[in-house]
Amino acid sequence: MSRIIIVLCLFLATHTLHARITEPTFGLYGHFGITSNIVDINIFSEGEAYNRFLQNVHAEPKLKNATGDVWGIGGLYELPLGKEISISFRIGYSEYTTNLPKQTDNTSHRGSTITNNIKLTLEEIALEPIVTIELYKEFNALIGGRVGYISEHSFFYTSVVAGGDYLFNNGAKENSGRIIFPDDGVFLTSFSFGFSYDFRFFNNKNFVLSPEALFSVGMTNFIRGKEWTISPYRFGLIVKYVLPE
Q1: pLDDT tens readout for residues 12-41
Q2: DSSP state, 51?
Q3: Which residues constitute the domain of residue 183?
Q4: How many domains does the chain have?
């Protein structure tokens, strides 16, 4: 209950004035959210050194909507283009994680069943131009795009043996590790849209607080020649400083 009261007090304190931005603005943002993934499981195929541990896993050709999470921080510069429209240029760092559905293999392992738990990590530096259009009294529509450079992506995996007498090369029934993709340096592109609301920060005419919700539709794959797109649903908060007139 105390948290609800604090949030309500903050909202009332910041909501006393509208905050239409008419001057160039600088800001900092943070966001978190979930991701939806479309994965071609055939990327885990025999002969590719960075995923040989999965070469015996049997799965459907595609795993749709494997889920994960994302968080990020960054800065922005916003420039008004008219009374009800502005454009912002954001640059920031984001980290994605995706947990693939557990995969099991019960063939060719002397009566044992192997369960593979796989988590993907992805580090991104992104540029995101966003057009803001005021719809009604500081309630805004957001439309833009996103181009992200993948600085590193890798798998964390844990394989566990159940039953039988099969052992991994380490002599145990559990094996784990990290595998870094050899083709780092790819770009992700996406189309973004969402909504935000601007209001003054504690009645200070030069500070604006903007909660927002953004959905980005992944348009390119982050593994060259393989199908794997990521579409994040992000919720964030921006603190903006409006330059004095």
Answers
A1: 334 433 445 567 899 999 999 999 887 765
A2: G
A3: 2-242
A4: 1
